[in-house]
Amino acid sequence: MSEESDSLRTSPSAASLSESELPPPPAPTGYVCSLTEDLVAKAREELQEKPEWRLRDVQALRDMVRKECPNLSTSLEDAFLLRFLRARKFDYDRALQLLINYHSCRRSWPEVFNNLRPSALKEVLASGFLTVLPHTDPRGCHILCLRPDRWIPSNYPITENIRAIYLTLEKLIQSEETQDGFPIRIKAVYVVNEPRIFKGIFAIIKPFLKEKIANRFFLHGSDLNSLHSNLPRNILPKEYGGTAGELDITAWNAALLASEEDFVREFCQPGPPCDSILGQALPPKGLSSEAPCDDSMRAVKSQLYSCY
């Protein structure tokens, strides 16, 4: 709350004014672009985002939501809708469908999305299962580090890991620099210390992946020099042959916990029943909270996701 509004609440002269004499409340703050000139140019080239048309495009998507999905309980703020436009390169129809899918997934998978807030996931965060490295890669991509061997299945179900990943991605896209997918885009997946069976499994599923996605996976085994050809040593922690000191999970955990109120506001409010327009988006097979947990995933010791 601004100092001006604070003074209106406490000043005797203001309190003596009649309701009709009080000044109107300030209008909601509109979108303010925080992108650098370089990123504005990159968004124009890669996403077809034109700064002079940005608010017009947001309003067009807002109008579509109100007209075509009047029962969809969603934020209509500029910055929120802009995420979906950027994720679908300002194609209105595809952006609307992504927005619907986003809410459909949230409502159809309550064991992941209900009560989704950092304080509910302290055990996962403390385990070191995931963190975001403090330095970005040379392209400006954030690096999400997953360490499956830190998960002990007897401690909590796999859905808690999924919740922590989703929480992290939501936190990352609060910054405009990361808003071109998830709405977020995975630029690369670097897997190190993977067992032989993982390579065999990946070889089987790779033909079924889109070529663009398959080409973003890099299996390095124990060859850290191979990893460093993609991610320079000066941004990696010592555990991955880097020179940026030991891996520290405390800074990212603190950043998440400091966002508690944002997540409570977004994910912990009672919502309406699932609207028919959302359809049926079910969680991936085998990942429900009722699925038996085993130690198979712990064999994959570490993965680095470079996200932009």
UniProtKB/TrEMBL annotation:
Signal peptide: none annotated. Pfam families: CRAL_TRIO, CRAL_TRIO_N. Residues 11-21 have a biased composition (Low complexity). InterPro entries: CRAL-TRIO_dom (IPR001251), CRAL-TRIO_dom_sf (IPR036865), CRAL/TRIO_N_dom (IPR011074), CRAL/TRIO_N_dom_sf (IPR036273). Residues 156-248 form the CRAL-TRIO domain. GO terms for cellular component: membrane. Transmembrane segments: none annotated. Residues 1-30 are annotated as: Disordered. GO terms for molecular function: phosphatidylinositol bisphosphate binding. This is Alpha-tocopherol transfer protein-like isoform X3.
